[in-house]
Amino acid sequence: MTEEFKAFEAAGWSARAATYDALTARATAFAIPALLEHVGPGDRVLDVGCGPGALTAAAAERGAQVTGVDLAAGMVAEARRRHPDLTFIEADAERLPFADDAFDVALGAFLVNHTPDAPAAIAELKRVARRVVLAAWGPEDEVAFLTLPAQAAHGLGGVPDGPDSELYAHPDRLAALLGEATVTTVRETLHVDSLDALWDGIRGGTVRIAARLEHATDEHRARLTTLAEPYRVATGYELPVAILIACCPRRVA
Ligand SMILES: C[S@@+](CC[C@H](N)C(=O)[O-])C[C@H]1O[C@@H](n2cnc3c(N)ncnc32)[C@H](O)[C@@H]1O
User: Fold this and answer.
1) Which of 36, 123, 128, 194 could make an SS bond with 98 (beta carbons 3.0 to 4.6 A apart)?
2) Which atom in ligand 1 lies closest to the alpha carbon of residue 10?
3) CATH architecture of the domain formed by 2-139+160-187+241-248
4) Dist CA 84 CA 76 (whole Å)
């Protein structure tokens, strides 16, 4: 199951490297300022599950020495294309190709809901870096841009068994995953002009929900219209986004 799921994720994210910016990257960008509070000039920073590299590049702009890694070859290629001066490597978070303590900080932004063995991934981040900082989506009722399409697609198949995406969506569970950690919540609002933009953005910016939407009918699309009604405004839809930021305290060298 694990290897099948990882192959599914790697192919799915690779196929979405060019379309990720339209929706999902706009939401994950809300986490960048809070994550960078834990990065200083000169820090050796590893960004695990870096996607197209926006956080990696932002850490570099702050003066850090950065490396990005991602499971998906297509994401690594896109990150290299966008940031040719930075280092990006194809690697699995659960088996990082780095020596112990090779980094000062390991960042994992929207990673732990994708790794079949999240404790193994966290053990690897802790092995290679003294400090680990994570971003994760909050509870599903606070992440409407993902939850509304997922609810509209409820019951549709096409996804191999994988990690429960809600497992680390609560501060206490995310803190427990990291060990001794402080968790804060960033709350923002994502604006979409239309539900077609949301639907297309989810198809181009997620893997598991997108796979379900491949099987959707007009009835599922109509469900989204009903579910999204409470979020409608004159200019489109205002969708709340809650992001948990968890920091594991600096380990003594
Ligand atoms: C939701 S995207 C987050 C990308 C980026 N960190 C951001 O904040 O926008 C999840 C990323 O994790 C990567 N990923 C999934 N499983 C992984 C694993 N086992 N090891 C490394 N990266 C993984 C995916 O390929 C994808 O690029």
Assistant:
1) 128
2) 25
3) 3-Layer(aba) Sandwich (3.40)
4) 11
